[in-house]
UniProtKB/TrEMBL annotation:
This is ATP-binding protein. Residues 32-148 form the AAA+ ATPase domain. It holds the Pfam family AAA_14. It comes from the Bacteria. Keywords: ATP-binding, Nucleotide-binding. GO terms for molecular function: ATP binding.
Amino acid sequence: MISPILRQTSALILARRQPEYRRFLHTRIDFGEQLIGIKGARGCGKTTVLLQHAQSCGLEASRILYIACDHPAMVDVDLYALAQTFYQEGGQLLLIDEIHKSKGFAIHLKAIRDTFDLQVIFSGSSALRLEHELADLSRRAVVHELPVLSLREFMEIETGQRFAAYALPDILANHANLAANVMQTLRPIEQFKKYLHYGAYPFYRESLDNYTSKLLEVINLTIDSDLASLYSIDPGKLDKLKKLLYMLCSTDPVELNISKLSAGVGTSWPTLSRYLDSMSAGSLVHIVRGGGGMRTVNKPDKLLLDNTNLFYALCASPNVGSLRESFFVSQLSYQYQVHYHDKGDFLVDDRWVFEIGGAGKTLKQLAQHPDGYAVVDDVVIGDGRRIPLWLFGMLY
């Protein structure tokens, strides 16, 4: 039996008015699949994707059930038994949010998929345990990742206009014309500056005044709830993870200094390394490892906050260089492999080398590299192999 509380909660949530803007992932998901997963960071809009589909799929409300596994009424609820009851009563679409909060969910989803003619769409944290569980669902589930908003999506939300997404090779080969096209509609630098402060998470639309406090809540919940439970981190050690975030906020984007970080956080390197892996899985930091023949066990990594909004939530004066590099990595890493490079800042897909800097950045450091590019901030339109930083926000 499905509890009345779950049914009432589902009805209330499904009846809510959803944002008109639909993220790019809607066009990439084949909603004809029987078992679909959406993973991503807290606050990136996974729930909205579920509910927007529910309201546009053409099914009667009674045929749809939405449940959130972090709801108190879901404690000790058997997912398979719930799905069986829902199916027997005529259900057709089961939406499961925060599925990583349900222990052993993979075996339940597998059984549901193999037993019932029922479509299931679930969402969950991008953390490592979810990845491990999803491995058991290969061949049965199609799982998509939803990153934070791109600059392109933010500009669409802000202006109501549509902007094309460009592949990286197109930007490298034709960036001046692409930038000119965008400039016909808006002032990209103006939008870019706003995005750096509050454009990464869709919930900024709810209230700009409360955005920072809500983002801090996302950070704290990710650490105190998600990472603590997923990785069995001692509650007394959680402040060390938060301290690490503060350190990254205001320091130069240099190679990872093992001894400095370990001393600053007050823990050994092996322990700190495990913390970093968990924070990367929780979409709080980017760990950029060496590439192009540099991938060795002892090679230091570059460490950045996951997106630029985290900088402004965590400290009053973010490091400009770290901001620039965080934006670049956050916009590229969804579709491309980004590694550290000894001659530039980043190596992308083991081919292109990028050096990130201000308006005066030149190609001097990459003069001998045929696929080397300078990514320049505070420039509206580039020239040659000098490309505006903001334009890399048009990739998805």
